[in-house]
Amino acid sequence: MATEAVRETGWASRGSCRASDPELFFPDAPFPEQEARAKAVCGTCPVIVECRAYAVRAGESEGIWGGLTTAERRSLRFPPGWRQRAAS
Ligand code: SF4
After folding, report:
1. Considering the domain boundaries, does residue 40 fall inside one?
2. Residue 18 belongs to a domain
3. By alpha-carbon position, which residue is closest to atom 8 of ligand 1?
4. Domain of 38, in residue numbers
5. Could you count the other beta carbons within 10 Å of the beta carbon of residue 12?
6. pTM (2 decimals)?
7. pLDDT category, 23, cuts 50, 70, 90?
8. pLDDT tens digits, 53-79
């Protein structure tokens, strides 16, 4: 189980955010400028694809991961109209 978790997030040790204040990515009260600054860090990150895929798959409910906010990740998991398509 622990090995699986390490494999799942092993890319994190190479993330550009390691040198950043965690508050930038997990703010108590997010505001647009802070979100833009966090996304700029993600934009330089060599593991953005892995980070985004993990966060969407895991359903991370807080913070900016892979350059996406919680709402943006949710829209990838549940695109508009997904309920109607599933019901038909
Ligand atoms: S994509 Fe962003 S949140 Fe993910 S590891 Fe890179 S810098 Fe950190």
Report:
1. yes
2. yes
3. 17
4. 2-80
5. 15
6. 0.83
7. very high
8. 999 999 999 999 999 999 999 998 887
Atom from ligand 1 closest to the CA of residue 46: 6
Q: Which residues line ligand 1 (CB under 6 A)?
A: 12, 15-17, 25, 41-42, 45, 47-48, 51, 65-67
The per-residue b/e assignment along 37-66, b for 16 or more CB within 10 angstroms, e otherwise, is ebbebbeebebbebbbebbbeeebeebbbb
Residue with tokens 């980070």: 51
Q: What is the number of structural domains in the chain?
A: 1
Q: 51 C-alpha vs ligand 1 centroid, how far in Å?
A: 6
Cα-to-centroid distance, 65 and ligand 1 (Å): 6
Would you state the pLDDT for residue 1? 45
In a domain, 86, yes or no: no
Q: Please choose, from the candidates 12, 3, 28, the residue with its C-alpha nearest in 3D space to the C-alpha of residue 66.
A: 12
The chain-wide mean pLDDT, for the chain, equals 88
Atom number, ligand 1, closest to the C-alpha of residue 45: 6
